[in-house]
Specification:
Blueprint lengths: L2 H13 L5 H5 L9 E5 L3 H6 L5 H22 L3 E8 L7 H24 L2 E6 L7 H14 L5 E9 L1 H18 L9 H6 L11 E4 L18 E4 L9 H12 L11
Helix pairs in contact: 4-5, 5-6
Length: about 260
């Protein structure tokens, strides 16, 4: 183990936290969201504050994802969508992009058997054809292996952008119109939804935004029309099960009216 790996391991073990049983008992599981979305942000800042390279922050972010997937399974959350790599992230230095792609490949190689054992379905979304071949192959293998699992759907948003998703949907719809299989008069909101990457899935009930930023960063632009937001200053590598429970507690105490009035 390298010195950097030892430093990372020590830091991660120190921050790992067991959920407070009293906090967990406050959670009304009958009111939990079915679909939780998370913008995994703050890896670079987490590393910089500790004098570590950004790659260490991304590795720490993988550990956070592992723990959040586990607690979502335990709580019975049906769908978890995580923003892993955006269409804009290609603008980052090539070394960092390569690190992220390698981490994705390693995560799938190391975790897929355990994810499959836990009955988790891996569902990659985004412009996947533009990812490196090694990453695409691992994603295809993971998706195929877990396609019949139904305990938790884990949507991995990769080379994903909300605007790109809508553009891709419009292109497919336009081809159908040109082919005469669809008329413009037939297009409804449901038509658009059926052509998004998240087709056949309910929209997110709750969007969690770590790192204290007040923006949605081109994430699920169509799907979050009536999604509840929960924003925290906690950076993603520090985000743990207890933070998720607090977000869920806040969600269960909200009144969702979807533009209507309480009756």
């Amino acid at each position: 183990m390298s010195l950097l790996e030892k430093m990372f391991t020590t830091l991660f073990l120190k921050r790992k936290k067991v959920v407070n049983p009293d906090l967990l008992r406050q959670l009304d599981k009958s009111k939990l969201p079915k679909h939780v979305a998370i913008i995994m942000d703050g890896n670079g800042r987490w590393a910089a504050r500790r004098g570590l390279p950004r790659s260490a922050g991304h590795q720490a972010g993988v550990e956070s994802l592992r723990s959040i997937v586990e607690i979502c399974c335990e709580l019975g959350i049906s769908i978890l969508t995580v923003y892993a790599f955006s269409t804009e992230n290609w603008k980052r230095p090539q070394e960092e992009v390569d690190t992220l792609m390698n981490l994705l490949t390693q995560y799938l190689q190391n975790e897929i058997n355990e994810l499959h054992r836990k009955n988790i379905k891996i569902n990659p979304i985004g412009r996947l054809d533009q990812l490196p071949e090694s990453a695409r192959k691992e994603l295809e293998r993971a998706a195929d292996l877990t396609k019949n699992n139904n305990r938790l759907i884990l949507n991995l948003a990769l080379n994903y952008g909300g605007r790109a998703e809508i553009v891709d949907a419009v292109k497919v719809i336009s081809k159908k119109i040109a082919a005469g299989t669809l008329s413009p008069a037939m297009i409804t909101e449901e038509t658009i939804a059926e052509h998004l990457y998240t087709r056949n899935l309910p929209d997110p009930d709750l969007l969690i935004r770590p790192s204290g930023e007040y923006r949605i960063s081109n994430f699920l632009l169509w799907q979050i029309a009536y999604t509840e937001f929960w924003i925290t200053e906690v950076l993603w590598p520090e985000f743990n099960s207890e933070h998720l429970i607090k977000a869920l507690l806040d969600y269960t105490n909200r009144e969702r009216r979807f533009g209507g009035l309480k009756i």
